[in-house]
Design goal:
By secondary structure, the protein is mainly alpha-helical. The chain has two domains: 1-50, no CATH class; 56-101. It is built from four helices and no strands. The chain has helices at 17-30, 56-70, 78-81, 88-101. The longest helix is centred in the middle third of the chain and has 15 residues, at 56-70. The N and C termini lie far apart (39 Å).
Length: 102
């Protein structure tokens, strides 16, 4: 099995990665998601910020910058490139549509 676990924290929080991993594994076991499974690999990444912060001003600035970049054949897509909330599937659809337009 492969799992992706996301833990939210304030941007200035001191994170004990080993303690968090132990807690996640304990919680997964407690909920019956894992039983006799054995952790064989793990990786962590700290994203700060992990999500874009959308405001009216950021939407306007994103539209302005995307239009300017497009005049130079630069096309920005995805969560950070489009400054939006989206899934990987959304990224694939957006990229496919861009490729068809180009």
């Amino acid at each position: 099995m492969s799992l992706y676990v996301e833990i939210g924290a304030p941007h200035d929080a001191a994170l004990d990665i080993d303690a968090l991993r132990a807690r996640v594994l304990g919680d997964l076991h407690h909920e019956g998601i894992v039983t006799d499974h054995r952790l064989i690999s793990h990786h962590h990444v700290i994203l700060d910020p992990a999500y874009v912060h959308i405001t009216q001003a950021s939407l306007a600035e994103t539209a302005r910058l995307k239009a300017e970049l497009a005049t130079h054949d630069v096309h920005s897509v995805g969560r950070y490139g489009g400054w939006t909330y989206c899934s990987i599937e959304d990224n694939l659809i957006e990229t496919r549509e861009l490729a068809q337009r180009l």
